[in-house]
Every structure is written in C-alpha cells, then in structure tokens.
Design brief:
205 residues; twelve-stranded mixed beta sheet; mainly beta
Length: 205
C-alpha cells in the first residue's frame, strides 16, 4: 500500500488569552517556507503497523510543496500552486492533475495555503500543553474529507509531529526532523518535468 501525502506546520509565541483557533492561525502565519525531513508510520484500527516511510519535504505559501519519499520506495509529489504531479519511480508513471479547492481543504492548507482560512475548514481545540509543547486538534467542517481528525504538535516555534485518523480508525503519524522555517526556496523546487520515457496520466480533476 502506498500512501501519498503532502503536508507541515510552524509557530509563533502563543498568546495567553487567545483561543485555540486564533493561536494556531498566528503560529502558522509566521511561516512562509518550511523544509526538513519526515518519518511516517501508518497503523490500523487495532494498532498494527501497516507501513513505514521516510523522506524530505519543502513547503511554501501559495499551495506549493515538494514531498519526496525515499524509503521504502521512491515517490515524488510536487505542486507549483496550480498543478500537482505524483511521480512513482518504480512504476515509471506520473499522474498530473490540477490543484483543486478540495486539495485546499486537506492538511496542505496548514502549510501552503492561507492561514486565515483554517477556521473556515476546521474546528480547532487545544489538545494538550506541556511547557513549550502544544498540540492542536482539528476536525474538518466538511464531512467529505480524507480524515476525521488531525492533531498537530509544536515545540516552541518548530513543528514536532502530526497525526491523522480516518473514518475507519486508521492512523497516520508524521514526525518532523531537522525542521527549518523561512529559508529562501527557489521557485524551481516546485517545478516538475516528467522524465523521458515515463507514462504520464493527466486527470482533469
């Protein structure tokens, strides 16, 4: 099973009297770019480990991202803010599709979209706070989403982890490592040209 994700977050100092939604939006608004590596684990409803993956990623405002899975197989997901490309290296296949409003209602909104739209897409509550570590629990306002709950944890200004749960109880956990915020990223990072000889499947939506 191959899980495609493309997503992350970052923070600013919390306001003591701010509600969880306002607090999260202020943290996200600080971040213009995010780079680092990730470790991903997928568990079924009973806690059995289904998949592990790792790789690196870059994100920027304007719904741009580059999500490069290196292990256990190589896969690349890239968006320039208008088009999404998913390149499966083993299959020598690229899926190309437009970035739609539905994509903006996924966790990608947190990292590449407009932070001010978070309250429109999610109901937010604070899950836990321990010193510099704070977790936010997000529930989609739209029932037609890929998950029923999203948790995001920060330590200070840096993203620490994310957990998504779908309607069947399957959980995907992402731990972020070597996270860096607001480093300049060249626009070419978010461009993609299918390699010669690969199959290209173009989808209209």
């Amino acid at each position: 099973m191959k899980l495609q994700l493309g997503l992350l977050l970052v923070v600013a100092p919390a306001l003591v009297f701010a509600g969880p939604t306002e607090d999260l939006v202020k943290r996200l608004a600080v971040v213009q770019t995010l780079s680092g590596s990730f470790q991903q684990v997928v568990l079924d409803q009973g806690g059995t480990r289904l998949q592990e993956a790792s790789g690196d990623m870059q994100m920027a405002r304007g719904n741009r991202f580059r999500w490069h899975t290196l292990q256990p197989f190589e896969q690349l997901a890239v968006s320039d803010g208008h088009t999404v490309w998913i390149y499966d290296v083993d299959l020598e296949q690229v899926v190309e599709k437009p970035l739609t409003p539905d994509t903006a209602s996924t966790p990608a909104l947190l990292f590449g979209g407009d932070p001010g739209q978070v309250s429109e897409a999610f109901m937010v509550e604070e899950g836990a706070r321990d010193g510099k570590m704070v977790t936010y629990r997000l529930a989609p306002r739209n029932d037609d989403t890929m998950f029923v709950e999203l948790e995001v944890t920060f330590v200070g200004k840096m993203p620490h982890s994310m957990r998504l749960e779908d309607a069947l109880g399957q959980q995907t956990s992402l731990d972020f490592q070597d996270a860096r915020i607001n480093e300049p990223l060249d626009n070419s990072v978010f461009d993609f040209t299918p390699p010669d000889g690969v199959d290209v499947i173009r989808q209209s939506e």
